[in-house]
Amino acid sequence: MSEGRWLVEMRGIVKRFDGVEALAGVDFAVGYQEVVGLLGDNGAGKSTLIKILTGVYPPDAGEIYFEGRPVRFRSPREARALGIETVYQDLALVEMMSIARNFFLGREPVQRVGPFSFLNMREMEAVTRRVLEEIGIRVRSVWEPVSVLSGGERQSIAIGRALHFGVRLLILDEPTSALSIKETRKVLGYVEEVRRRGLSVIFITHNIYHVYPVADRLVILSHGRKIGDFRKTDISPEMVAELIAGGITLPEEGKP
Amino acid sequence: MDPQAVEARGQARTRLWARGITLAELRRYPEVGALAGFLAVFFGFAIVAPHFLTLGSLAGIMTIAAELGLVAVGVTLLMIAGEFDLSVGSVLGVSAMVFALMARAGIPHLLAFLAALALAAAIGALNGWVVTRGRLPSFIVTLGSMMFWRGVLLAVTGGFPIAYEEQSLLMFVLSGRLPGGFHASALWFLGVALIATLVLTRTPFGNAIFASGGNPQAARALGVEVARVKQVGFILTAVLAGLTGIIQFSRFGSVDPLRGEGVELEAIAATVTGGTLLTGGYGSVIGTVLGALIVGMVRNGLVLAGAPAYWYRAFIGLVLVGAVIINLRIRRSG
User: Which pLDDT tens digit goes with each residue over A50-94?
Assistant: First the structure.
């Protein structure tokens, strides 16, 4: 495998919790401007793999390469510094805080007054309003609490935030599982937009039909092992669903 | 559909919109309930209590509000960050006692002041460390801390109060008498409240405080160091409690080992009356200032109205529940 091919590559990742092997040597990679669907039933190891990639847990064995260079994240902060950002299903935004404050949380623009740094409220308002317009969300004020928004709007804002701050790899954790069909379609459209702008995306879900429309490649985990890695064009959603459910076993074919 | 019906419908929608705007905007201000309570209590006592509107009475209210409010400002920031501190009353007592003992032993007051505050900071840091490292509920940890330090205070002093008659510049700066019967503590209170409001609403750290209490997982995912934010909150709260202890000592010239008992709950009452959510993530320092002023007015006003002072706690209880109901109604509307 050439080093220039992957934005991020994980090799032989092993993770044990209290002696139980959550990941048993998983290889996983994401190319440039690629949308990868990471699939598997509950407990398959999807979120453990992602938490290792984002620096929440250290792996017990295995290596991670970012743009071909080996990396070792000791905290989510270090992963974020390289442009890896996760949007969690229910944890993307702080409901009681305003939209603008959420948008800039952890990355606030400041104005210096002597030795003190104050929030640049004007910039926060202007940028948030512009991004909301781009996404097509209308609110009375960007200082409204996030709780006035629908689930899809919240996902879209979290994704818009990642775009605005120049994220390289966007990880979406079950972004559509709590959404209506109409809202799901909107969020998927937004994922396409993210790829067009040059980002790579990992889309975690246990429902193949949520990710199939936008994915370039599908990776399936089961019991801590990778049991499938397919270009979307090589497999039908029905077969993937069967694989996830453990109904059939296929040899690892079509590996890109 | 005939045009008139469409028109009527449009108008109804516009009206709803207008109403929605006002409610939505109200919801952005946690202190609305406290302001209503403040005005009700203020005008209530102004009518029924003779001499309530005199300068002396207002000065007395300010002194009570300042000594409670300084503690409550810390409690508010910490509560918004998602944690309790029940040990503030004990920290207040310990700091006052340490200052008194050191001053009586002839140690320069400024040194004694700094040492007492450093001890308060250390207790706060310990509280925060146990809570964040041990992932324990702060309610339990600081309840233990409250009992422990009160016990230490009683054991070390043998239960006897300490009096110290001398005055010093430092003590005057902390709680000296100003014209009109006001005390310097009122200025400390307003200054600290102003700074706390600025930090909370206009700095990245304030954003981190809201996020840490509102949704710690989301905050962590966005790189907010939640444990550090809470740790700073515990230290700040303890230091403000310690400062208040020394301020009270400067005013009374004495301290007994039970000094500060019950302050923790009054501070929570002032904070919650001011619109801060007990569960964190939402609140305001300005609301807490109003809450502390309400407590001060009730304490002073009941006496001026001729009611037995014993009614004070009962009345505070009513105001607290009333304000919380108003706060909840505003938040649920729209």
Answer: 999 988 889 999 999 999 999 999 888 888 889 998 888 766 789
Q: Give the count of beta carbons closer than 10 Å to the beta carbon of residue A17.
A: 11
Q: Establish if B297 belongs to a structural domain.
A: yes
Looking at the structure of chain B, the number of domains it has is 1
- Cβ–Cβ of B203/A118 closer than 8 Å? yes
Classify A53 as helix, strand or coil: helix
CA distance B212 to B195: 20
Model ipTM value = 0.83
Biggest CA–CA distance in chain B, Å, is 91
In a domain? residue B41: yes
Which chain A residues are within 8 Å of B207, Cβ to Cβ?
97, 101, 104-105, 108, 119
Q: Whose CA is closest to A125, among A153, A150, A144, A106?
A: A144
Q: Can you tell me whether residue A229 is helix, strand or coil?
A: strand
By residue count, chain A amounts to 256
* Fold for the domain defined by A3-96+150-245: Rossmann fold (3.40.50)
Domain spans of chain A, in order of start: 3-96+150-245, 97-144
**For the segment B280-322, what is each residue's pLDDT rounded down to a tens digit?**
999 999 999 999 999 999 999 998 988 887 888 888 888 888 8
Q: Cβ of A105 under 8 Å from any chain B Cβ?
A: yes
Instruction: Please state the separation of Cα A83 from the chain's center in Å.
Output: 11
Instruction: Give the Cα separation of A144 and A129 in Å (integer).
Output: 12
Q: Which residues form the domain of B265?
A: 32-178+193-332
| Reported pTM | 0.86
Q: Is residue B74 part of a domain?
A: yes
* Pair of tokens at residue A37: 């669907």
Contact of A184 with A174, CB cutoff 8 Å: no
The total of other beta-carbon atoms located within 10 Å of residue B11's CB is 10
Residue B36 lies in a domain: yes
Residues paired with residue A118 on neighbouring β-strands, in sequence order = A111
Q: Using the beta-carbon criterion (under 8 Å), do A91 and B203 form an inter-chain contact?
A: no
Tell me, what CATH number does B231's domain have?
A: 1.10.3470
Number of neighbours of residue B203 by Cβ within 10 angstroms: 17
